[in-house]
Amino acid sequence: MALLLYSGLSIDLSVILKDADDFNVIIQVGENENTKEFRAHSVILRARSPYFKSALSADWISNKNDMIIFNKPNITPTVFEMILKYIYTGELDLRNQSAEDIFRLLIASDELLFEELFECIQDYLIEKQTSWIQKNFEFVLRTVFKLTGCKKLQDYCLEFLCAVPKPFITSKNFTLLDENILYSLLKRDDIMTEEVVVWDGLIKWGIEQAPGLGSENCDKTKWNNENYEALKKTLDKFIPFIRFTNITSDDFFDKVRPYKAIIPHDIYEEIEEFYYKKTLPKTIILPPRTATLVSTIIRPNLATIISNWIDKNVPITINNKYKFNLIYLMSRDGYDEVAFSNKCKEQGPYVVLIRVQSEKIYGGYNAIGYKIRNRWFSSTESFIFSFENNQDINHMKILDGDFFFIIDQCLRIGYNSLHYDNVFDKCQIPIEEIEIFSIVNK
Fold first, then answer.
1. Could you tell me if 140 and 10 lie in one domain?
2. Distant-in-sequence, close-in-space partners of 433: CB < 8 Å, separation ≥ 6
3. Strand, coil or helix: what is 164?
4. What is the DSSP letter of 195?
5. Closest CA relative to residue 199, chosen from 152, 165, 176
6. Tell me: the pLDDT tens digits for 139-153?
7. Where is the TLDc domain (predicted)?
8. How far apart are CA 375 and CA 276, in angstroms?
9. Per-residue pLDDT tens over the stretch 271-320
10. Quick one: 241 and 319 in the same domain?
11. Is the distance from CB of 17 to CB of 58 less than 8 angstroms?
12. Are 130 and 232 in the same domain?
């Protein structure tokens, strides 16, 4: 039997990193005033990283007194210190690191070809730093699509964008979107907004990108044939992803028809026949953009868990019985009693999701709903629950309580308005986001 005794090895290598006097590599990282030199061993660097295996034998490194001098100005000292510890010990503690430095570590691990580290950091950011990702969404989106292997974060960003797409699609920044991101977005079936919004966004993006157009030539009444041809060529690969049959006839007339010249002839003929004769297209039909769940707080797999709890299924099974219709979003609709009442009144059974600053998620199901302003009705079918994060399936639980109380955008939870979970007794946990869904049988 082989004995795997890694702990002592890790400790010994950590000592070598800190106190060795036989190093043969000096790595200079950072730039301007934020610089630092690190000492390392070429044999360990080469063994642990394909990047260093190649780089340390390349012509562009310098040698001085039999010492290899290596410069990495694009990596900060804080990030490189984490990388060296990982190289020597296989250990990495991200708990006290800022989200910005963890994201920089992701970029550096991609450049230095640390595949294991790269995958782990993606998971960590998605599980533990969702708030930071969402607050810095456009920067994160553009960055991760430049990293070829960053599939997990790319998918997460697209899912988040699809959940509440309209503010971004209608913003000026949408016209600056990289075409690879736009292509990945338009292919999806879960963009939760009107298709005409997607079309309008695509046209504005195309005008900004097409040669000879842009802000100085955006008035189509002044365009010539060359301008239309430039826009057509720019949007050629995107047009087939537009669900034209989900655009109303009025919007088709006002917003699609004026751009007839940029739509391939065979596609336009089928669209026109659909609107005039109600004949379904034969070659270009795509399914409507639909999704079971539109949420910035939880992922779709947790909606299945909630559906099972509603049906009292034990053990948990695949359950796509219910559709979750988003009717209230705090960041969109405001933390306002009147807006809340108008959105939620008489909407039937509810699921409420609340994300607090720790990334923990609290929720509740009410089988009756919100009937009268300022009053929720209780039911024996109602329950409250929690998830540790937006993908948690290991520590999820139904809580011992039946009451949510929110005041000054903070959360309390318990059996009634006079009895709260001790964790929330002083109401010191601010709420980051609230979503409310009406629950409908499919």
1. yes
2. 296, 297, 329, 330, 331, 353, 354, 355
3. coil
4. H
5. 165
6. 999 999 999 999 999
7. 296-440
8. 49
9. 888 888 777 777 766 767 765 566 778 877 788 788 888 888 766 655 56
10. no
11. no
12. no
